[in-house]
Design brief:
Length: 233
């Protein structure tokens, strides 16, 4: 009888050990499966991020991007406090405005600022690209009550190869956009708020460091319209 009890006890212990071993095996299998899945997700995520272009590769775009100007305008206005007078300023676009301001418009407070910037162009017909250090950007601005308005127009250039009188709009780097808007805010502080003008001129600071081919006035929309890039007070 005692030997039978020992045998039964041994059998139960073996069964319990088998359950423990099976549970451990299942746990290891689940852990291994989760680790593999996690590794696969990480690898997939890494591949997705590796295909995203860095800001430096996107900085020389030939695309005209109004959103870049709007975002930079708001960043300089509200984060850097370029116009720290408590007024609300907005940026809009008008692709037909000129540098001419009528007497009636002047009475309403409109002023004009025209500057040069470095930009890149791409022909929609032949896909040829070219840089230019003499891209003309025109701003109209005024302040009424506590609301300020800026209206911007970029001027285009035509392709030398196609000569089809189609003016392509320029693309700008982040740095060029920021520099142009900083100069604009300097003019606004001078002409609207009476501050001293610390601007160093109408041309882009970085444009002087970049070599481009001689400017062809017959291919420049602003030159054809007789718009000068000298500062307007």
């Amino acid at each position: 009888m005692e030997s039978e009890t020992v045998v039964l006890s041994f059998v139960f212990q073996a069964i319990n050990c088998s359950h423990i071993i099976n549970r451990a095996a299942v746990t290891r299998a689940l852990f291994t499966s989760c680790s593999i899945a996690s590794s696969q997700r990480f690898t997939s995520s890494t591949k997705r991020f590796s295909t995203i272009r860095s800001p430096s590769t996107m900085s020389r775009s030939t695309d005209w991007i109004p959103g870049l100007w709007l975002d930079t305008f708001n960043d300089l206005l509200y984060d850097d406090n370029e116009l720290d007078y408590g007024d609300q300023w907005t940026l809009n676009f008008n692709y037909s405005q000129t540098d001419q301001v009528t007497k009636e418009e002047r009475k309403k407070g409109w002023k004009v600022y025209c500057c040069r910037a470095f930009g890149d162009f791409k022909c929609a017909s032949c896909s040829k690209t070219w840089p230019s250090a003499r891209v003309v950007v025109l701003f109209r601005y005024r302040l009424r009550s506590d609301r300020g308005t800026v209206i911007m127009r970029p001027f285009g250039q035509a392709c030398r190869s196609c000569k089809n009188n189609m003016f392509e709009l320029p693309g700008f780097s982040d740095k060029e956009v920021e520099q142009a808007l900083v100069r604009l805010f300097s003019k606004i502080r001078k002409n609207i708020y009476g501050e001293d003008d610390d601007d160093d001129g109408g041309s882009s600071a970085s444009s002087n460091k970049v070599w481009t081919k001689p400017h062809e006035k017959t291919l420049c929309q602003a030159c054809i319209m007789g718009i000068c890039t000298q500062d307007n007070d």
